[in-house]
Amino acid sequence: MNKLKLKSMLEQFFLEDIGDGDLSTQALFMEKDYSTFHFVVKEAGVFCGKDVIISGFSILNPDIDVTTYIADGEKVEPGTVIAEATGPAADLLQAERVILNLVQRMSGIATVTAEVVNLVSDHPARICDTRKTTPGLRMLEKYAVRCGGGFNHRNGLYDAVMLKDNHISFKGSINAAVNEVKAALGHTVKVEVEIETRDGLREAVESGADIIMFDNRTPQEIAEWLEDVPPHIITEASGGIQKENVADYARTGVQYISLGFLTHSVKGLDISAKVLNEQGGIESEFITDVKE
Q1: What is the mean pLDDT of residues 143-169?
Q2: Which residue is catalytic, options 91, 192, 215, 236?
Q3: Residue 105 reports pLDDT greater than 60
C-alpha cells in the first residue's frame, strides 16, 4: 500500500468529518483528558487495515500511542482485540469513526475474498477483483482483496487495455479494435478482449489478444470454448458468478475469475471501539459499530 497516498486520503476524510471543529469534544474535554480505546472484533472474519489505524491516529495527534495486535490477513474471532490507542480523549474520539469506517469495510472485503478463495482451493483458478470499487477507496479495497488471498485486476483505465462490447461496436470488429490499440500502445501493455460468442473468441485469438474474458458465459460454454484458446493466452471468466457457482467456473480450467461483489456490495466486518475506565475495565461502548 502507498502510505503517502494513504496519509493524503485520511487527511481528506478527517477534513470532511471534523470540518471546522468537533463541537462535541470541544465542549466536553480538555487537553489533559486522556483515555484508551480498544478496537474489538464482534464477528469472525479476516482483519485488514493496520496501517489505517496507525496512520489515522498519527495524523490527528502524533503523540497518540498505538499498539496493533493483529496483522493484515489474519483470521479473527469475536472478542479479538485488534488494536489499542491511548491519548487525548478528544483526538481519539475525532479519529475513531473515520478509522472504523475504513477498517470495517476493508476487513469485510478481506473476509468475503477469503471465503471465495477457499471455495475454489481445489482448483488453480485465481480469484480477482474488478473496477467496481467505491470512488476514492480503490487502493484500500484492492489491498483488502489481496489480504483475503485474492488478486487484483487492472487498477484503472491507465494500466491495461480491456476492449468491451461497446469499444468493439464503435470500431466495427474485434480485429479492428485490437489492431488499432496495438498500433498505438507500447509492447508492455496487455490487451484483454471481452467475448460473448465462440466466433468472437476465435476472432480475438486471431487478432493477437493477450487475455480473453468470457463474459456472462456458462461453465459448460467456457469448458468447451477453451479448446479454441492457445496456451499462451490468459483466460478469465466474469459476469453472473456468485459464491454458489464459483466452484463450477473454477472447474472449467479458466485461469482467473473476476468478481465485482468482492467490493461493490460487501458488508463491513462488525468492529467496535471501546473505551477503558480508570480501573482498566470496559466502561462503555461508543456507537461505532457497523450497524450505525
Answers
A1: 95
A2: 215
A3: yes
